[in-house]
Design brief:
Blueprint lengths: L4 H5 L11 H39 L8
């Protein structure tokens, strides 16, 4: 058998599109904080409101019966 471990030990030298290191990590964090989490928050709150609205259409508004 031949030793091919030296071929697999080499690390790839290409960089990602956002860069590497602290600057790239901060850029990813800023994108998550500024764009992704607000969209997720609006979706969660809107989904909960829609769920309550549909539930009230089916079972009626909260409160004592016949009020």
């Amino acid at each position: 058998m031949s030793d091919t471990s030296s071929k697999h030990d080499a690390q790839p030298t290409h960089e990602s599109a956002l860069g590497t290191g602290r600057r790239g990590e901060f850029l990813v964090f800023a994108i998550i904080v500024a764009f992704i989490w607000p969209v997720v928050a609006v979706g969660v709150v809107g989904g909960y409101g829609f769920l309550i609205w549909m539930m009230q259409l089916i079972v009626g508004p909260p409160g004592p019966p016949g009020a």
